Amino acid sequence: MKKIILKIEGMSCSACSNGLEKYLKKQKGIEDASVNLVMATASITYEDSLTILDLENFVEEAGFKSLGEEKLLEKKEEEKKTPYIILGILGLFIMLLTMQHMIKIPIPSFLDMKKSPISYSIILFVLTIPYMIYSIDILKNGVKNAIHRMPNMDTLVSLGIVSSYLYSVVGVILILCGQKEQAHHLYFESTIFVIYFIKLGRYLNHRSKNKTKEAIQELVKITPSKAHIKSDDSYLDITIDEVKKGDILICLPGERVAVDGEIVKGSSTFDEAFITGESVPQVKTKGSKVIAGSINYDNPIEYEAERIGRDSTISEIVHLVVEATNTKAPISKIADKICSYFVPGVLIIAFVTFVLYWIITKNLGDSLTHFVTVLVVACPCALGLATPLALVVSVGNSAKKGILIKDSESLEQASKVDTIVFDKTGTLTYGTLSISEIHNHSSLEEKEILEILASLEKYSSHPISVGINRYAKEARLDANLDLMIEELPGYGIKGKDDRNVYYACNGALLKKLDIINSYEDEEHKMTENGNTVIYLVKNKKVMATFGLRDVIRKESISLIKKLRDKKIEVIMLSGDNEKTAKKIGNELAIEEVVAGVTPKEKTEYMKKLMAEGKKVMMVGDGINDAPSLTSATVGVSLSSGTDIATNAANIVLVSSNLMKIDELMTISSHTMKNIKQNLFWAFIYNIIMIPIAIGIIPKIPMNPMIACMAMILSSLTVTLNALRLRRMK
């Protein structure tokens, strides 16, 4: 199976996106398809036997046009305002011309409806032609969708435009034949204003939809367009497209990193907030990974290009975000179902209205006015935009905060979660040993004894040494003692210089070396707290003891408290022994702790919870927890920031900051509330406006021009409401 996202042209409302989606799903070789009205894309999963050309032909057969694969990193051009300004001014002139008998302004005699009906009608006919030309795309789409039995908003508008235009053209012919009274029954202005306001509405809607995509577009813009490549003792400027894997690049202070890579020379502080959502800058040294778009604060560094173009972290994130917006949340199925019946229903209502008015009033012009008004006032656009607009805003904003949502359904389900199950190691804890206790028994400062320890451990790959080195790096310690290092398997490390002999070792080595140990009780207490104990010895005298253990994440306690306050049940699952797991559970105030479970048993436990009717979120590190992550209602994985696409979860926390879970649930809750508001306003609009257009509600005037304005207002209301999510804290 392959997957592609195609850019689609010609979709104007939800009837279009729903129709195209249904058509694609029916085609042999297409496994699944999801069409996004806001992004104007179609995400298609298809068999290897099909080609992209086949897919584009299917799109063409459905009445739309494929613009090829969506190039997420390309800059999109803004639509020009000039046509709207010119046609708007011309429209005002036409409105004054047709309303001359009401506003009584002085006009030349050849434009007077009563004095010169022939010249008046011909001028109106000529002025309407530019608008008809401007509406060719609407007319073509309307006809194509009608032919393909997928009537949409363009079909409704086209029918209204053509009906009023042809009726007016016949009126002009009758005037030329001597029936001058027909000058009072021309509807060119209705045709003009329907076209203008529909076009203007789509322009405003397009701009508003672009605002909903700003969070995604900001991600795209983060990567610089140029890079500095090392050349002898200087550097040359090249474009990003010229960078090759393995190139040595230079990043100067104040600049952004051009591509993902690894530092080969130098150290500096980097701002990665755009991708992790964390405001605290990260210290990077030789061997550290740097991410494209991160800002270098302090010093120039040299780094080797590793992941470029589509393979880069930022490109992965953009693809994941766009794919998430192309998935359907369960709530969107309500709108989709209604939209599939909406346009045919409106067509029937409009024709019935026309026939009834003609039978009752015998007035063809009046009947036509109601017919066109019903067609124009109906607004499937607002209904179709209600869900995807909110989802695009929320998914984009979440990505900026370091929360990658892979599918819309997970975003919806996160607001319904009543139980959260946490893995212990690597999730509630850091998953690696770190110094948790320090007991200084020397006259030196704590920083000095830590630097001695770091100097002893810096070349070892033992898990204890790795934990100490990480601690030293985060504390910015200088591990610069020039020592001859000797590893003592099973005991520790020995280091010596011209005057001193040092050991970083366990208690067993002290006994072997006949070193007096006065700190056995201290070791016992640290061991009871779950620590591995290391002694620092100088010339056979104990300088300090260090306790290392898998430390609880600093934000874990705050998160658990917040979740308990929200009445959410919290459970900890661990493969660790019961004593260690219970101790961590007690420190975090987690009452239900399940220890000693295998990955298979974790999955079975998840299924048991869900069988009880619980909405379960599983939070794990995305490796050993993959089976249980996929079996939960919502799976949330912690990520290193560079392995985003490899996680099995629905949602990835790029920064591995657990407080993002509370943010996720808040975003989900606000998004669902916003979608429900949008659906409410879209439903209410149509429930009220269609009866008014028919004329059921007396004393409320309605004509095609007012109907157009009302329709635009409906779509803008939904769009502006969705945009409120951008300001959500």
Task: Name its key features.
alpha+beta, Alpha-Beta Plaits, 49% helix, Calcium-transporting ATPase, cytoplasmic transduction domain A, seven-stranded mixed beta sheet, six-stranded antiparallel beta sheet
Present the secondary structure layout.
Blueprint: E1 2-9, H1 14-26, E2 30-36, E3 41-46, H2 52-61, E4 65-69, H3 82-98, H4 100-103, H5 117-134, H6 136-147, H7 153-176, H8 188-212, H9 214-221, E5 226-231, E6 234-239, E7 248-251, E8 260-265, E9 268-271, H10 273-276, E10 282-284, E11 289-290, E12 295-296, E13 301-307, H11 313-325, H12 332-361, H13 364-377, H14 380-400, E14 403-405, H15 408-414, E15 419-423, H16 424-428, E16 429-440, H17 446-457, H18 463-474, E17 484-488, E18 492-496, E19 501-505, H19 507-512, H20 520-528, E20 532-538, E21 541-552, H21 556-565, E22 569-573, H22 578-588, E23 592-594, H23 599-611, E24 616-620, H24 626-631, E25 634-638, E26 651-653, H25 660-694, H26 704-723
Parallel strand pairs: 15-22, 15-24, 22-23, 24-25, 25-26
Antiparallel strand pairs: 1-3, 1-4, 2-3, 5-6, 5-7, 7-13, 8-11, 8-13, 9-10, 9-12, 14-26, 16-21, 17-18, 18-19, 19-20, 20-21
Helix pairs in contact: 1-12, 3-8, 5-7, 5-8, 6-7, 7-8, 7-13, 8-26, 9-14, 11-14, 12-13, 12-14, 13-25, 13-26, 14-25, 14-26, 15-25, 17-18, 25-26
